[in-house]
């Protein structure tokens, strides 16, 4: 497996923020969301991912407003959100603040009354010759990737968003349901216009040949088991095995780590339902590991309700500013930019004992200065843990002055680490020591 495409030079150290326009504000419009840009930028977010902005089909629509993922036209803006000019202005304002902007692209299927249905051979058919869908999604129909005219039209539609709005990349919905050969063709053609960021919703290693980032679903499912507080050492070991596998992917194949997104929130629960007291430690982990972290818009409130998928159900923003968890995200986003958590690192997993509930690793940058960090998380929600690292940190490796940050985001400078040092971590907490270098 090899990476054929050169990635953008602004991904390393960056974080992504997913925007659900419909539910973000009372108005549910692009103009209303634009007012939040300075606040989000202050947290340190680099990349805005907008859920699909295309018009939604009326036929077989679910709920009162329908699914964003059931498009009726690939080359237009959903009037629920505003106009073409509104999105142009939003992208311009975002770029002026230093954001990159990517949009959700739904290439596997369309809504039932998409304008392309005038070309029936562009779609899959059932035995009776009717439009069909193969995954149980009643409001969409599957496209036929054996049809080259359809593929050409799809790439043309993607080019429209680059030329019209100057977007910086695509988050490709259910990317593994679309042939890899199409994504190779699309990226080759589109990057003649502009170098883009490609995020694929899949956890198939082969798709890392095309996508800069793919989902870490396997890690997510591993982490979900931690909340039950049963057989934690075995679950932690399995989770580190998954992460080690991800690190074996070729250079340039990064993973997206998250504790929430639109699908998880609506269908499987908020981060607090899924992780209980581990919600914040695991959120911190997504920034303290060499991957790409994702925040689902509203997690900084923190949002503790499932948002309706097909109807209006806005986030409950507090009257106070900033939201309660904005300082938490500002701190971990800032720390994520430290060279120790970049892509060019060497990571050493540390053994804290056979029955330990501690996840610990030492990480050191191989480029960009002498950045290094020690990260420790107690993944038990019930018990404090006393542990040491039994000489696993050689003196020459840990020599230096560190800043320490804990679960309460308190920072202590000019700290030293002793090779035989003992630590105590409270339940559901994390602790990180990072070097001043870099």
Structural class: alpha/beta
Any idea what the shape is?
A: globular
How many helices? The count is: 13
What's the arrangement of strands in the largest beta sheet? 1-2-3-6-7-8-9-10
Poorly predicted tracts of residues: none
Oligomer: single chain
CATH architecture of the largest domain: Alpha-Beta Barrel
Distance between the termini: 32 Å
Q: What fraction, in percent, of the residue positions are helical?
A: 25-40%
By CATH reckoning, the class of the largest domain would read Alpha Beta
Number of strands: 18
Question: pLDDT average, as an integer?
Answer: 95
Detail the topology: elements first, then pairings.
Layout: E1 16-19, H1 21-24, H2 30-34, H3 37-43, E2 47-50, H4 84-97, E3 100-105, E4 109-111, E5 140-142, H5 148-165, E6 169-172, H6 180-190, E7 197-200, E8 213-215, H7 217-224, H8 232-247, E9 254-257, H9 262-268, H10 271-275, H11 279-287, E10 292-296, H12 326-336, E11 345-349, E12 358-365, E13 372-378, E14 385-388, H13 395-398, E15 402-406, E16 411-415, E17 422-425, E18 429-435
Parallel strand pairs: 1-2, 1-10, 2-3, 3-6, 6-7, 7-8, 8-9, 9-10
Antiparallel strand pairs: 4-5, 11-12, 12-13, 13-18, 14-17, 15-16, 15-18
Q: What labels would you give this structure?
A:
19% strand, Immunoglobulin-like, eight-stranded parallel beta barrel, alpha/beta, TIM Barrel, single chain, globular
